[in-house]
Amino acid sequence: MRKIFTPEFKKQILDFAQSVIVAIVICIFIITFVAAPNEVDGTSMQPNYATGDRLYTNRLSHWIGDTTVGKSIGLDYKRGDVVVVEKPGIVPLIKRIIGLPGETLRISGGKVYINDKLLEESYLPEGTETNQGTFLKENVAVQIPSDNYFVMGDNRKVSSDSRYIGLIERDWLQGKIFLRIWPANEIGIVTTGETQLQN
What we know:
Largest sheet: 8 strands, antiparallel
Order of helices and strands: HEEHHEEEEEEEHEEEE
CATH architecture: Ribbon
Low-confidence stretches: none
CATH superfamily: Umud Fragment, subunit A
Number of strands: 13
Radius of gyration: 22 Å
Number of domains: 1
């Protein structure tokens, strides 16, 4: 009777198992350190992102964005970047960076001012108003400390963001969105939203 578990067969099984283990380790490494999947849940980023949108986060921004190498290749966080926020005690959020470390931010008359300059945000629908929250009151400026950011959702009327939950420490930023893979008609690279400061 022919043996099924011949030395050659056992070697093939072992080689296959090793390949599977290596593939799993590589996947875990990529998700942890390079690119992680995320899904939009809620309306706070409409009209640019909707519930069910599947996005990939560039995790390298989290790990090396503030290093010399990270800054030189554009991995550091910039105004207009869409980021994943994991603040302790709240569910993960997808928001947009509005205020950077060292800047002063205030809201007045439905507009956002950075260092007393009007912020123009090309990704917002015309006529969008940004109202105060429980953390940031109308015409009360907030100074953003080093290693902190001010984030907001694009749907300013419903978004629970830094206007309510306060400043976001750099360590709570898990990376910036760089790719959308769903819905099919929106597949593509996600770029930094265009902003401009007016005197």
